[in-house]
Amino acid sequence: MDRRPTIIDVAREAGVSKSTVSLVLQNSPSVRQDTRLLVREAMSNLGYVYNRSAAKMRSAGAGLIGVVINDLRNPFFTEFATSLQMALSARGFATVIANTDEKPELQAEVISAMLEHGVSALIISPAYGGDNSIFDNIERAGIHAMQVLRKVDTRTDKFPFSAPDYVNGGQLAVRHLISAGCRRIAFVGGVSDRGVTKERMQGYLTELAALGREPLLVPGRATRAFGRESAKLLLKEYPDLDGVICFNDLVALGMISGFAESGRNVGKNLKVVGFDGIEECAQSYPTLTSIGCDIASFGVQIASMVLDWMQDSRFPPAELRTPVTLIARGSTRAS
């Protein structure tokens, strides 16, 4: 069977009614012992796992959703978690949110605690590192779990994954800078061995290769501090630099500060593009051009997919990429 078995599958396998299976799951004394054994055997043969918390949720019309985020200090993830929580609340579901601070061991602890407290589903923006044993635990618990924004477990048939189209975002950024006249373009920020960095970088590398231009990669932490320090180093080592694509908006905002401190006019003779489209991009000086991921709408979409999965057994796409757009602002304009 290519999908998670349902109570209907168990009933069919055992040759009994769906209501009889339900009574067995509820340990009702009205079911004869031989019928009970038949149903239990069918469950074992099919690998059916009874999700007691989800059953309680369906009967009560409410439930608790666990949301696990790798870095809530980053406004991108905060905006996503806020949108997600509000969308779930609008459908009558409470949310418990945990920040793992990019620590896989902390992630394992908070997910285990959520499972123990009977969450009906998990939405996880996972930390990198560690092993996938926590996902094995989730599977054993029979809990619906979706990976978002980052993928660490490749079993998307069990743990579906959704994220913005990072590769296309990198392509859009390069095309925008090329159309603005840039000839020496760097990609700055992001830990190089992480999947999300590779994807955001892939579009950049593909576009430059098509133009026959050499890439300039400056990996590092996705922070303002790294962006600010990188700006000073790049100006010293690559005086011909005229365009920068940053791993995220935090790096880009830091670079704007670093370039300004070094006396470079961002927007006129040096152009900067961020990635994520956080609200602060419109408030910086100059305002920051960014790859917009429409993270608020993304949160609403994830909430809808997870609840449809829980309530109606509609399995989400194994892997979904949502559209991104380039939002041009002052950091790539001459005036």
Could you explain how this protein is built, in words?
- By secondary structure, this protein is an alpha/beta fold.
- The chain has 3 domains: 7-50, lambda repressor-like DNA-binding domains (434 Repressor (Amino-terminal Domain), Orthogonal Bundle), CATH 1.10.260.40; 55-163 and 295-321, Response regulator (Rossmann fold); 166-294 and 326-332, 3-Layer(aba) Sandwich (Rossmann fold), CATH 3.40.50.
- It contains 12 helices and 12 strands.
- The protein has helices at residues 7-14, 18-25, 33-46, 52-60, 75-90, 104-116, 133-141, 166-179, 195-211, 224-237, 249-261, 295-312, and strands at residues 63-69, 93-99, 121-125, 144-148, 161-164, 185-188, 216-218, 243-246, 271-276, 289-292, 319-322, 325-327.
- The strands form 2 sheets. A 6-stranded parallel sheet has the order 2-1-3-4-5-11, with helices on both faces. Strands 7-6-8-9-10-12 form a 6-stranded mixed sheet, with helices on both faces.
- The longest helix is centred in the C-terminal third of the chain and has 18 residues, at 295-312.
- The radius of gyration is 24 Å and the shape is elongated.
- Residues 57-62 have low confidence and may be disordered.
